[in-house]
Design a protein that fits this description.
With 166 residues, this protein is mainly α. It has one domain (10-145): Hemerythrin-like (Four Helix Bundle (Hemerythrin (Met), subunit A), Up-down Bundle), CATH 1.20.120.50. The chain has 4 helices and no strands. The protein has helices spanning 16-36, 41-69, 74-96, 100-145. The chain binds fe (ii) ion (FE2) (2 copies). Residues 21, 58, 62, 118, 122 line the site of one fe (ii) ion.
Length: 166
């Protein structure tokens, strides 16, 4: 069993966002394997550096997507991303300064944050998308049931209409 397991409840878009998340999960596992085996600081620093750039790329992609879809809590979500990146840069600095204990903390910090953030915050993107689709479907169904403005409405008469004589 991997240190950080991908699970079905982490699915967001079945596309680029999930692909990014899966890549980050793989990087966390790579980082964990390296630190658990006591790999040197250079090896750990190199995996961490790839993880940081992939995370940054992913967060930017996610923020662009949220902006395009008019996600209402974009600013709040972005704050969470920024705080996480700050935390990671802090750990990277400490690793560079020779903090040996930092290496073992890295994979757990990344796993715990990603696991919670994907399941709690990123999931809101999926919920918003579904809500918007339902609203669009409802609006389309409503539009189809109302004749277009200006359209000539011809009343339907029975095929044979008997005129009543007095
Ligand atoms: Fe994400
Ligand atoms: Fe996110």
């Amino acid at each position: 069993m991997a240190y950080f397991e991908w699970a079905e409840d982490m699915v967001i878009d079945g596309g680029p966002i999930d692909k990014d998340h899966r890549l980050l999960v793989d990087l966390v596992n790579e980082l964990h394997t390296a630190t658990a085996r006591g790999a040197g600081r250079e090896v750990v620093a190199s995996i961490l550096s790839r993880t940081l750039s992939s995370t940054r790329e992913h967060l930017t992609r996610e923020e662009t997507l949220m902006q395009q879809m008019g996600f209402p809590d974009l600013e709040q979500h972005k704050c969470g991303h920024e705080a996480f990146m700050e935390n990671l840069y802090g750990l990277q600095r400490r690793l560079e300064e020779g903090g040996i204990t930092v290496a073992s903390q890295l994979s757990s910090v990344l796993r715990d944050w990603l696991s919670l953030h994907i399941r709690r915050n990123d999931k809101e993107i999926l919920k918003f998308q579904r809500r918007r689709q339902r609203e669009q479907q409802r609006a389309a169904a409503q539009a189809a049931s109302i004749p277009a403005l200006g359209a000539k409405v011809t009343p339907k008469l029975p095929a044979k209409t008997k005129l009543l004589s007095r």
